[in-house]
Amino acid sequence: MDKAIGIFDSGIGGLTVVKEVVAALPDEDIIYLGDTARVPYGIRSPETVTRYSFENTRFLLAQEIKMLVVACNTASAVSLAAVQREFPLPVVGVLEPGARAAAAVTRTRRVGVIGTEATIGSGAYEKAIKAINPEIQVSSRACPLFVPLVEEGWTHGEVAMLVAGRYLAPLRERNIDTLVLGCTHYPLLKKVIGTIMGPTVTLIDSATETAKEVSGLLAERGAKKQGRGAADRKFFVTDTPARFEKAGKLFFGDSRVTAEQVRVGGV
Ligand code: DGL
Question: What is the dihedral angle through the alpha carbons of 149, 121, 44, 116, rounded to the nearest 10 degrees?
Fold first, then answer.
């Protein structure tokens, strides 16, 4: 029997990854868990985020998945290696694919990374990019207001421009030619970020890069869906579904997202 791809995030942001996985692999069944009762992860300690990641993974494993995507930069940055060690299935994070794409794209070897406080504080992107090419200079910046801006739907207009302008000013001064959007919410701010950084800076969307990695891994293992039935997509959340379903439209385009509330770990 065909199994699904399991994907989790701290909340709705991982839907940007689901959207790209659906575009790359439209036939695959997907089971998504948004840990909406415990979002945001970006301000929590590595120990706490790792515990949440383990509990989310156990929930998804119980749903019979064939692989796991940690569709949260914060969880990938602080807990991916531990999840890979602990659980017996292929696990893909969002960080390595973005780091690889940035290292491949930069010409000037000056790369910027933006993300949550926890992601930037972990130094995980810098480590991953420098492991590929130690000559690349990495400038990082936490942009904590971007997540609530996106969740309010304020992805365009003067407030978004003002906030992005402030956060990105130091990166503009560094003359980077590549900027990694190191948070699952940031693809929705691509236009604003692109306008501020200007046309000479390439934006790396880790959601797109992760979808390529998932597709490659399934092909390599001969694990792509065999059956011909329509793709089955299930969405679970740990808090009431209303907010997730409303914001889901923003992240997922036109399609409506309906979710079921479940208990994971202690919540
Ligand atoms: N999904 C998280 C990430 O990609 C952002 C939201 C949070 O802080 O939980 O880092």
Answer: 10
